[in-house]
Write a structure and sequence with these properties.
By secondary structure, the protein is of the alpha/beta class. Helices cover about 45% and strands about 20% of the residues. It is built from ten helices and seven strands. The longest helix is centred in the C-terminal third of the chain and has 23 residues.
Amino acid sequence: MSKAVWKQDELESDPHGRGDKPQKVRAMFSAIAGAYDLNNRLHSFGLDQAWRRAAVRVAKVGAEDDVVDVACGTGDLTELFAASPARSVLGLDFTPPMLDIARQKSARRRHARAVPRYEHGDATALSLGDASADVVSIAFGLRNVGDPLKALREFRRVLRPGGRLVVLEFDEPRNGLIRAMNRLYTHRIMPFTASLIARDGSGAYRYLPRSVETFLDRDRLRAAMLESGFASVEQVPLTFGTCVVSCATVAR
């Protein structure tokens, strides 16, 4: 059983306002890395990969596109981009144990086109040149960044004219009944079962619903993208609005 990272009183307040949030996020993901994929599949009822495929479709990847997948975790979205027509694919993550699993998974696969590279990286300080990518993606990771608005500006910096930022993130369903059922599942059932499967004492699966509840909703995320210099934003709700794909485009 891993040691506690998040205390209950820390989660009762807004976890996004903590100065030590990046360190806590890295510690909790290190603790749950081994069971991360299993919990994703089980607790999304297998939908998590369908959501990622939707993000790839929205990105409209072309044969000359260079893709950067930020907060790539164990590489699920990165590998889907590697199966797209992309010219190159780079996965970046803040947590070394997650990257280790991504590399192991990738090594077992036969890549028809772009072979993804995996590197350590910070979403708020990307080691990439200006206008060096055509697609930047981040799936279920923007709310885990220490300064999400700074990350959005970084994504804008590294994108070329006409480039796309694709953000896949959880949201609260707008239908009242579905929202209530979703909250019951994510706040009561999932934290218990996921922690049991991962043998996790870090509090990662109690942090998850709280981090969604206190993060930007789809409307505020859209506004933040536009304020960060993007010309337009398209949003596609998935599975009754439990998550949303937001695609922001850089002006040509």
